[in-house]
Amino acid sequence: MKIFINKRIPEAGMQLLKDANLEIFIPEHENLSHEEWLSYCKSNDAILSVGGEFKFDKDFFNECPNIKAIALFSVGFDHVDIQEASARKIQVGNTPDVLSKATSDVAFLLMQSVARRASYNFEKVKSGNWGDFDPLHALGQELYGKTLGIFGLGRIGYEMAKKSKAAFEMDIIYHNRHRNEEAEKNLGAQYVSFDELIEQSDVLSIHANFKTEQKELFNASVFDRMKKNAIFINTARGGFHHQKDLYDALSGHKIWGAGLDVTNPEPIFKNDPILELSNVCVLPHIGSATEEARNGMAKLAAENLIAFSKGEKMPACVNPEIYG
Fold first, then answer.
1. Where is the D-isomer specific 2-hydroxyacid dehydrogenase NAD-binding domain (predicted)?
2. The domain 100-282 is classified under which CATH number: 1.10.3470.10, 3.40.30.10, 3.40.50.2300, 3.40.50.720?
């Protein structure tokens, strides 16, 4: 089986593929045009896809009928038309669990960084503008006993809730497609409606899988109803929030601050006015950027393809329904 990998992955995954005697192709340069990417896809049987810049939609499957399996180097699979893949009996695998702690660490980091205006104060130090002591300037807020609202309380959201409960004794509320009984039992998490979530949260953190119908769900009408002291955290997908509406809410003091590991668009434009605000911290989508998480992702993506090559179901198969 010939496997196309569009970008280098950690050796931990590469070695597994080599040991399984699978034929691997990685292009000499990684900044592929869509045409280059598509031509490589047409020449291989399976894809280990790193990044989400290219879409696996109906047009792709029509142009590449040779593709039999797709292993994603990510948890999210919003760039794959799963229904179309399933109709064609194409297995799609992702990498859940292995990056839950690392990604929740970044959400937890952003929450604290925004609460204490860390980015703004770091820039003051870098510019030599430390200034004299001012008891009223750019004050932060404490998180102790506040309410953390989680939109999408899955594996990553659970880790975020656990950290916040342990460190700051935060009350946990959440909105989900399904109840999370483990979180309710272990963390005292309370299931609420979406309206209650946005109205009651002091910190609102997004951890859901993105779906097209949720595009810019967090927009002006939502920000207008949040608490004025609220901190908005997004480490899931930039498509969840309307970037200009978020800027307006922040600059207009409708909400208190925002921490983003994902932006809309992504990457963010360097002149985006949101970057000038003192109550914002933006990171370049580093949720899984630890050696441990990336090694785990590489291994699981490789294991997905190895299982497929043996005629087995991928261990992290997104569309197991194709097996009936």
1. 110-287
2. 3.40.50.720
Q: Global pTM?
A: 0.95
**Residue from 117, 175, 285, 294 carrying the catalytic annotation:** 285
Token code pair at residue 308: 């497929």
Task: State yes or no: is 266 an active-site residue.
Answer: yes
| C-alpha closest to that of 301 among 1, 81, 15, 107 | 15
Give 192's pLDDT tier (boundaries 50, 70, 90).
Answer: very high
Q: Does residue 323 have a pLDDT over 80?
A: no
What are the pLDDT digits (tens) for 123-161? 999 999 988 889 999 899 999 999 999 999 999 999 999
**CATH architecture type of domain 2-97+290-322:** 3-Layer(aba) Sandwich (3.40)
Which residue in the list 237, 241, 242, 294 is annotated as catalytic? 237
C-alpha Rg value of the chain to the nearest Å: 21
Active-site residue flag, 28: no
Q: Is 88 an active-site residue?
A: no
